[in-house]
Amino acid sequence: xxxxxxxxxxxxxxxxxxxFKITISYTLYFWFFxxxxxxxxxxxxxxxxxxNIIAYYYTDDLFxxxxxxxxxxxxxxxxxxxxxxxxxxxxxxxKKAYYSELKINQLEKEKKISEIKALxxxxxxxxxxxxxxxxxxxxxxxxxxxxYLILKLSDNFRYLINDAQKDLILIEKDIxxxxxxxxxxxxxLVNKVxxxxxxxxxxxxxxxxxxxxxxxxENAFKYTSLLKGxxxxxxxxxxxxxxxxxxYCENPYSEESSENIEANWKESGIxxxxxxxxxxxxxxxxxSLNITKSNGxxxxxxxxxx
Length: 306
Hints:
The chain is α+β, with helices and mostly antiparallel strands. It folds into 2 domains: about 100 residues, no CATH class; about 180 residues, Heat Shock Protein 90 (2-Layer Sandwich), CATH 3.30.565. About 55% of the residues lie in helices and about 15% in strands. It contains 10 helices and 9 strands. The strands form 3 sheets. It has a 5-stranded mixed β-sheet with strand order 4-6-7-9-8, covered by helices on one side. The chain has a two-stranded antiparallel ribbon with strand order 1-2. The protein has a two-stranded antiparallel sheet with strand order 3-5. Strand 8 and strand 9 form a beta hairpin. Helix 1 packs across helix 3.
């Protein structure tokens, strides 16, 4: 076997040296480097360094006692461990950067998929066909509201084709589209369902992603229209104050009625599940969404820090 400073090199000697190097390196890699507040643990890691060096000195001395002075051995080990620490930190930093890039790419991919799904689902066939049937019936009766309904439906499609494909739009435009949708539904479901809408916006030029709130309103009309009886009330409120958007939607709800909904109608529209995904992608840790069903009411409360 080889020689080290005139002393025989043994397998156990090398294994002993490797053990202490791995111990400090892995401690740094798996525990210290991932810490968010490393400064709080500097004394601990320094203490572990010293203990490791001292323990290594005495175990190494078993293989060749008195081979060098204590402080020379201490300085040499400290320099070696520092070198290993730098190498392992570079490995950790590269790995972290790689996974961060993967996560960013995955979030971007999910965001695009979510928005594409939202755009594909914006034209709810049930809403379209029922609205056209309403307009047709009004036209047969020569109702004066027919031109108004056609105009609102046209505005709805113009928004979906043009504005909804942008990353951000003015909040006043999105609310205008929301009002148009509500007006059409109120006309279509006259005497059956009525939505009361209130908004208070302190900055109409604030930008938000398009179609962010429509799914909750669409869901309210969808399930309220299934209920028996007349004059069911939906309450919708939107408030923007100091860059904080608050949305509230409340509608009557029946589990029995919702079970009878057709599968293709249930899946039509943007959908609350998709909206949740969009919110998570667009406003991570900057929004809160609370959806509850109790006492015959379905309530949605959404807050977003824009």
